[in-house]
Amino acid sequence: MSTPSTPSGTGAGRPDGSAVRIGALVPLTRPGWVEAGQHLLAGLELAVSEVNDAGGITGRPLELVVRDTAADPARAAAAVEELAGLGVAAVAGEYHSVVARAAAAMADAIGLPYLCSSAVLDTLTEQPTEWVARLCPPQSRGWRIYADLLLDAGHSRIAVAAQPSVYWAAGTRILRDCLTPRGGTVVELDMSALSPAALCDELADKGATALLLLVGHPDPAVPIVRSVRGDRRLAEIMIGAPAGQPEFAEWAALLGDEGAAIPFLRYLPERLTPLGARVEKTLRERLAETPSFVAFEGYDAVTVLADVLRSHGTDRARTAAAWPRVDVEGTRGRIRFSRTPGISVWQWASTPIQVVDRDPAEPDRFRILHAG
């Protein structure tokens, strides 16, 4: 297990009244999921603004240094190294799991605290590390809850339309491990070899009752939904998107009614905390739309880091050592980090999880189908 050590070079923590800097990793250009990145950045920026309105970090302003990852793991790793050289006290953010994994590996290697806001891949680092903590739940927890929903709804023959990716492969494995012992089967369909029309033929041939989209958004997820919804042979098939593609307004804009009744995972409680309700209102004004759970993750990430920096100073080693002592009211509940079996980073173990879909009668409204 790696342990924090005193940062070298331009470490954070200057006593001269200059800004305390936090790095932010955000996908803001394609092929990154830009809408998710915009929501994540809105949450990060709002929290920084409120920290500064309340006096900053013991009188010093908090400054966000943003880097666009564009869903590129190498670019993210290089950004972490650059941010360390710029003297940031810590790094937060990132939506894409494979990108966050590269960022976490670099943060661990160079001794820079990293609070992952939104990436769920269980294995963020190959070895246990003290430098990395995470707000969102591990993929295995959320996708097991999703598997429960499938079985409860009577779906035992599941097809997954998947693209090659460590994240999608991990999701398929979790689903298979959950469903097989309970009489379910998982059929993998490789979307690097199939067109949406060919996928429909495969679904009709194999008799699946549910299709899960383990693919990127908007392409090929949107064309797949259109093809399946338009195929009379598949009128009874359920489409699901555990990774959360239907969460964002772009999904509804592109698909309209066709994008409804597609269950997905999101990380919100049934009721936000009083803080969350206030933040929701402000984020809605900033984004000019309903904030996603990703925006709340961004806000909570800065809230946690600001609390740690006020209480323990801006030395990187002290920040990393403070993860197990975090006890902060966030927008979605009380945030505390612990060691979770099988997870190599400090984990918020009680992150709320819902399976929701867009209501066919009112696609801008979400229905909670299952919670865990």
Task: Describe the overall structure.
There is one protein chain. By secondary structure, this protein is of the alpha/beta class. Helices cover 38% and strands 19% of the residues. The protein contains 11 helices and 16 strands. It has helices at residues 34-53, 73-85, 97-110, 139-152, 166-179, 196-206, 221-229, 249-255, 274-287, 293-312, 316-321, and strands at residues 20-26, 62-68, 90-93, 114-116, 132-134, 157-162, 185-190, 210-214, 238-240, 264-266, 328-329, 334-335, 337-338, 346-348, 354-359, 362-371. The strands form 4 sheets. Strands 2-1-3-4-5-14-13 form a 7-stranded mixed β-sheet, sandwiched between helices. Strands 7-6-8-9 form a 4-stranded parallel β-sheet, sandwiched between helices. The protein has a 3-stranded antiparallel β-sheet with strand order 10-15-16. Helix 5 links the parallel strand 6 and strand 7 (185-190). Helix 1 packs parallel to helix 10 and helix 2 packs parallel to helix 3 (97-110). The radius of gyration is 21 Å and the shape is globular. The two termini are 31 Å apart.
Question: What's the layout of helices and strands?
Answer:
Elements: E1 20-26, H1 34-53, E2 62-68, H2 73-85, E3 90-93, H3 97-110, E4 114-116, E5 132-134, H4 139-152, E6 157-162, H5 166-179, E7 185-190, H6 196-206, E8 210-214, H7 221-229, E9 238-240, H8 249-255, E10 264-266, H9 274-287, H10 293-312, H11 316-321, E11 328-329, E12 334-335, E13 337-338, E14 346-348, E15 354-359, E16 362-371
Parallel strand pairs: 1-2, 1-3, 3-4, 4-5, 5-14, 6-7, 6-8, 8-9
Antiparallel strand pairs: 10-15, 11-12, 13-14, 15-16
